[in-house]
Design a protein that fits this description.
By secondary structure, the chain is α/β, with parallel strands linked by helices. It is built from nine helices and eleven strands. The chain folds into two domains: 97 residues, no CATH class; 197 residues, Vaccinia Virus protein VP39 (Rossmann fold). β6, α7 and β7 form a beta-alpha-beta unit.
């Protein structure tokens, strides 16, 4: 597949990031990205910058000294322009997580930038759900799209699972598309490519499989990777449901991982989404796969009345 032109990274930066990812893989680097709250707790434990390990540098986003990392890695970081210096100490401006046998670039902690590229426990749950969900009735699955692709891990997962398919990884965040493109190339999958699109608006045709792990919180600064909008963060997820209704092929399926705010036992996303699906004649299943995520959000004004935020897995399909 051809890759849509992404202006964020220059060719020399792309090659340096690919070299950096390959070098970390050769060194058997491993890191599991945790929630921001857990990350903050771990970072409260002091580590001398001159003693920083690869996990400290590329996982925990700790400061380090130049002699804490070998010359090959530091040269790759400088060529890729992913190292920042402050008060004589260095920091990586990207993180690298490992999941499902892949090495994946995403944003460094803290993810305060408007164009930050998300990765965390939600990503792991999303990938696991995709791996365990039966294939759509559409056989063979030829055309797949990952809406709001972020790091591109879903597109990579599906490209491996459906090697005969073309997989589009789409996002409105050029930084996400740039890193997703690197991650796809690092994974060595040839049937996935990135494309700039707001939902499916810049794409043509219908799809056999539509997947998404959209932002689902109400974020005061409306960061793209985090803010879902609408009622208690459900706005973007409902837009994806509607887009899938409009663009699913016969026998196609929507796989949607999202979070829902439950208030007095009521899940408004469930009510609205299933009403849309029922009206369109699509079959669906709905599973709560984690009853309590991002509990710290309940301390914010936006969620003052909510009982909890749950992670859910919606599978909707159109009859063949």
């Amino acid at each position: 597949m051809t890759t849509h032109d992404i202006p964020t990274l220059q060719p020399i930066q792309q090659q340096a990031l690919l070299a950096l990812g390959g070098a970390l893989r050769a060194r058997k680097y491993q890191f599991t990205t945790v929630t921001p709250a857990t990350q903050a707790r771990v970072l409260a434990r002091p580590v001398a910058p001159q003693m920083a390990s690869l996990r400290d540098i590329f996982g925990w986003s700790r400061p380090f000294t130049a002699d804490a990392v070998d010359a090959e890695l530091l040269a790759c970081m400088r060529a890729a322009d992913v190292v920042a210096e402050h008060d004589g100490l260095l920091r990586s401006t990207v993180r690298v997580s490992t999941l499902a046998g892949e090495w994946l670039f995403h944003s460094a902690y803290p993810t305060t930038q408007a164009d930050a590229v998300f990765f965390g426990p939600d990503t792991a749950r999303f990938v696991r759900a995709m791996e365990q969900t039966p294939v759509p009735a559409r056989d063979p699955v030829r055309r797949i799209v990952d809406i709001g692709c972020g790091s591109g891990v879903a597109a990579i997962t599906l490209a491996r699972r459906f090697p005969q398919s073309d997989v589009l990884a789409v996002d409105i965040n050029d930084r996400a598309l740039a890193l997703a493109d690197i991650n796809i190339r690092l994974a060595g999958v040839n049937n996935a490519a990135v494309h700039h699109s707001n939902l499916l608006n810049q794409l043509d045709g219908v799809f056999d499989l539509i997947v998404a792990n959209p932002p689902y919180l109400l974020d005061a600064t409306e960061r793209a990777y985090r803010h879902g909008g609408g009622e208690l963060g459900a706005g973007l997820s409902l837009q994806i449901v509607q887009a899938a209704i409009n663009r699913l092929a016969s026998g196609g399926a929507l796989w949607l991982y999202t979070g829902v705010a439950v208030t007095d036992g009521d899940d408004p996303f469930f009510r609205h989404a299933t009403a849309l699906l029922d009206e369109a004649g699509l079959r669906w299943t709905y599973e709560e796969i984690d009853p309590d995520v991002f509990g710290e959000e309940l301390e914010t004004p936006a969620y003052a009345g909510a009982d909890r935020i749950a992670a859910v897995w919606l599978v909707a399909s159109r009859d063949a």
